[in-house]
Design goal:
Elements lengths: L1 H9 L12 E3 L5 E3 H11 L21 H17 L32 E3 L4 E3 L5 H5 L8 E2 L9 E2 L4 E2 L2 E3 L4 E3 L1 H6 L6 E3 H110 L3 H6 L19 H36 L10 H9 L14 E3 L5 E4 L19 E2 L8 E7 L6 E7 L17 E7 L2 E4 L5 E3 L5 E7 L4 E6 L4 E6 L10 H10 L7 E6 L9 E2 L4
Antiparallel strand pairs: 1-2, 3-4, 3-5, 6-7, 8-9, 8-10, 11-12, 12-23, 13-22, 14-19, 15-16, 15-22, 16-17, 17-18, 19-20, 20-21
């Protein structure tokens, strides 16, 4: 059965997907049913092979291949015999699945459709499709792969196939509708409209992919910002824990030392008091002895004894050693006052840190997200409003009324020929000039093929074509030429990618001009050691600084839009 099935595929027409009926061969060598290929050419209006797409200038005269037809007859008889002799019909088709097109003729057990007829507006399985191959009246019908909703492909009013598209009404129409209701409308063939729609689809897809790319870059920037923020917080938390631990350890150390000193002082005081007490007890004993002797003498009646041995009163040496003044109350007050002041000072300092952290948190508004990268900081700190100066624009350049867009009109316009206007090179300067500090501006170049963007000294030559946009002539620019982007240094530096939006950052005192790709949020080139003062060599410049005579010249943004017709203008986005 497997070999018979593969053999049957070799005898199938690629148009009707059934065994050949009256097979013919085209000049390119492919075989088709005679009715299938002639009907295909009549409907399409072009004599083209459906398999190899070879187009014939003249419709070939097709004749039935009799030998091939006889081989087919033998194959049909062999297949009929293998099916049980006289069964005759093709094997039953598989039932149609949930996502498959079902035969419209099958009453019960809908089978899978193999073809759809654009004339009958119905889909057929292989068994019910046979009349379209054998019936003379049905052979001219146009058969296509099985599709659902065939009713939408036919005009319900005229019962004809919709072959045209009305761009005015944005609807598919048949030839009768075209003649009756859409004569004055913009009507094209379905193939032409489909081609245009596919072009629009690719354009929209590119735009969506670009937007998706930008959003992905921003999402990565947000993720990096969150990651770096988390790392900074974890680092600060660790430092806070270490600082508080060190502070607690210091307090514990001072506490232990203070307690040890108090203990030592107490021990010294106790030793001194014990010594004084011992001496006092000895003096008390001596005085008690003297007192006993005196008592005895006071009781005696021998007056001569009293005259001979009257004891003297014992001197009190202990009276010379007073007890030390009690310092415990004084030490307690000093310690209490010191610790209270320390607690208040520490509390005030920590409250200040907490207020600063809370203020930083409140200043971060979720409606205006910021990036932690270098470009984000430049945008936050140095973004400057830049507009175009129409008085410097070449006569063929057209500057918008708001002075934020410029395009090349190709033809020269009648404009005043003032000294500041470029008369050969299609350039225009910014209105604002800068002679100090740092500034940053952005330029949108989407759709621009050839362009130049950067800054230049005020002394740039305006007349004639002998203008070189090089640093030696006071120009620091980025340019796109013949599909590649380069930094106009000496020699030029070819860049790996042509950006569609550029950021320009100038550090006047630092002598640098840097360019950034806004989509990639990365620096693409930087001019360093720039001399912005006109007519001054590096040695002369430092000599002027040394002598105190420095004349700063102004630098201006410079632009050149693409000269091709129909492209979007070069644009400076609003702040």
């Amino acid at each position: 059965m497997a070999s018979a099935h593969s053999l049957e595929e070799q005898f199938q027409c690629s148009i009707c997907l059934d065994v050949f009926v009256e097979p013919v061969s085209t000049p390119c060598g492919h075989n088709f049913c005679q009715r299938c290929i002639t009907g295909c050419w009549v409907i399409s209006g072009v004599s083209r092979c459906p398999l190899c797409q070879e187009t014939f200038t003249r419709t070939p005269e097709l004749r039935v291949n009799t030998e091939f037809r006889d081989i087919l007859e033998l194959f049909k008889k062999a297949r009929a015999g293998s099916d049980g002799g006289g069964g005759g019909g093709a094997p039953a088709d598989a039932p149609a699945g949930p996502q498959e097109v079902a035969c419209d003729v099958c009453s019960e057990g809908k089978r899978k459709a193999v073809k759809s007829c654009l004339v009958c507006l119905a889909s057929y399985c292989s068994a019910h499709l046979k009349p379209h191959h054998t019936g003379q009246a049905l052979k001219w019908h146009q058969l296509i792969g099985p599709v659902a909703s065939l009713e939408d492909r036919a005009c319900r009013k005229h019962n004809k196939l919709k072959e045209f598209f009305c761009r005015t009404d944005q609807s598919c129409v048949c030839s009768a509708c075209f003649r009756d209701e859409h004569v004055e409308h913009e009507v094209v063939s379905l193939e032409e409209e489909l081609k245009e729609r596919k072009t629009q689809l690719r354009r929209v897809k590119r735009k969506v992919e670009k937007t998706l790319k930008n959003d992905t870059i921003r999402a990565h920037a947000y993720q990096n910002s969150i990651k770096h923020g988390r790392q900074e917080v974890e680092k600060l938390k660790a430092e806070t824990v270490r600082s508080f631990a060190a502070l607690v350890a210091l307090i514990e150390t001072k506490k232990e030392k203070l307690l040890e000193l108090l203990e030592e002082k107490q021990r010294a005081a106790e030793q001194q008091s014990a010594e004084l007490l011992r001496q006092l007890q000895l003096e008390i004993a001596a005085k008690q002895k003297v007192n006993a002797e005196l008592e005895e003498l006071s009781q005696t009646e021998d007056e001569f004894r009293l005259l001979q041995s009257l004891p003297s009163a014992a001197s009190s040496s202990i009276s010379k050693h007073f007890l030390p003044k009690d310092q415990r109350l004084q030490h307690s007050e000093t310690l209490r006052r010191t610790l209270e002041n320390l607690k208040e000072t520490l509390n005030d300092q920590l409250d200040g840190v907490i207020r600063e952290v809370r203020l930083r948190k409140d200043e971060e508004s979720p409606e205006f997200p910021t990036f932690d990268d270098a470009l984000g900081k430049l945008q936050d700190l140095y973004l400057t409003e830049v507009t175009l100066d129409p008085d410097t624009a070449h006569p063929s350049l057209v500057v918008s009324e708001d002075r934020t867009r410029v395009k090349d009109g190709v033809f020269r316009r009648r404009v005043p020929d003032n000294p500041s206007r470029f008369d050969c090179l299609h350039l225009v300067l910014g209105k604002e000039g800068f002679s100090s500090g740092r500034f940053y501006f952005e330029v949108l170049l989407e759709g621009q093929n050839t362009w130049e963007v950067g800054v230049t000294r005020e002394s740039i030559q305006r007349k004639g074509a002998e203008v070189s946009l090089s640093p030696e002539n006071g120009c620091w620019t980025l340019g796109s030429y013949w599909g590649r982007c380069q930094a106009n240094a000496n020699p030029p530096v070819i860049l790996p990618k042509k950006p569609e939006s550029v950021g320009v950052f100038v550090d006047y005192e630092g002598g640098s001009v840097s360019f950034y790709d806004l989509d990639a949020r990365a620096q693409i080139y930087s001019f360093t050691r720039c001399i912005f003062t006109a007519g001054t060599s590096p040695g002369g410049f430092f000599h002027q600084i040394y002598t105190g005579f420095v004349t700063k010249s102004r630098i201006y943004p410079i632009f050149r839009p693409s000269s091709e017709a129909g492209v979007a203008p070069l644009q400076i986005p609003p702040l």
